Model the fold of this input.
Amino acid sequence: MQQTLRRSLDSDRTDTRQVGELDPVGERDKQGLPTSVMLRYGFGQMGAQIFRDTPAALLPVFMTTILGIPAWLAGVAILIPKLWVIVCDPLMGLWSDRLAGRIGRTPFLAAGAIATSIGFLVLFNVGQFESEIVAAALVSAIFLLGMTAFSAFSVPYLGIAASLSSDPHERTKLLVFRMLFVSVGVLLGIGVAQPMVYWFGGQTVGWKAMGAIFSLICLVSMLGSTIGLHPVLKKVTIATASTPSLKDQLRAAALNRPFLHLTIIHFVQTVGQACSYTVVALVFIYLAGNVDLLIPFVFLMAIMGMMSQPVWLRLSRSMGKLKLFVWLCIAWCAVTTTWFGIEWGAGSSFTLPILGDVTGKELLILVRGGLIGITNAGFLLLVTSLFTDTVRLGMTETGAAVEGSYAGFWSASEKLAFAIGPLIAGVVLSLYGFESSREGIIEQSATAQHGILMIYAGLPILIFLASLLLVPVFARAMREREQAGLRL
Done:
């Protein structure tokens, strides 16, 4: 397997392609995509990341502590909209492709940005009801509409990354700007949103204030990016007489072997990450022994991820995207393995700025946060850049606007993975004897705590290593497209 993987990586030609026959960007693309355009594109991801992360992290808390909805019912209310978008994303992508030649992508982006921001505002302004079922149903309906609106923005937003430039290196640089604003969105949506509730007094007024402020941030980010990109988007939309049906698009995507194999790789890895995300709070409660450490941990992940982006951009040119992607996945696995030594340094102590006195164990956890941020941001950047390469292949083969459909399939696979991950985590927790409670945090057995560690580190490592078995297949499919004369 190792020799096959090495041969595949050494023959990675993804980054050496020339601009192909399909060049919707025109003469301007030969001069390079202006930094201002990249900045305008990336800016939209800040609000998108907030809408993706904040409800996921805080909506269960809002429903159970403010609206009095039982935890199981809150879970069902949130699950329904998440399952819906697995279907909605491909449909929204197909719809945007069909209308792209006539009205462009801007109407979808603008409508999605405005409706998403309104949905965020209303979501955290739901009042209390005597019936818990009515309250849960109302929240679920609002969240479903908000997720539908978000699909209208996020699917074409991801897809246009493939059409803004025909240079694969330049698309990587474009996505660096996107990743920078991903980190900003994570910092705000996870690191600031919850404290903000308490800054405004907590309870209902605090949630309403947070909802209003963050809905405004979403609007400024997403709509601002849409308005800023409008002049560019008018030049890069491919006008076609007709767009294939959803069935034909699915068939075309399946025949695009590089896209199919890369989507499977990304899906498998996302399942592993979803398992980790499901129990991250439990890791800091039961294994780290200090839940307050989670905020600086997330902060370091985001900051180090941002700072490393220029490095991955340069290395992707010299090493090739695919080879660097594999090495970063392996590095992520190596860092994640160190969680099995979580008790290292427990007997020592240090004094840090802002944080004050911390144990050596806590310091090493923070160091892991920084290293995870570096590797995680790197392989996410590269897999998304490789995704745009496979979309360009689809555009070349069909001569049609397929960015939305491909982005819809890609996004749906991510959401499906994030639905499967928590299910796997719940089953494994039960197998290891984790005990539920209605009285808050309770003690767990050593076996249950080991189960938490296996879900957070052991299982994702195995999943990531298994996903790399498909890399030679993906590399071979890319070579076949090159030999057929298709360009990225």
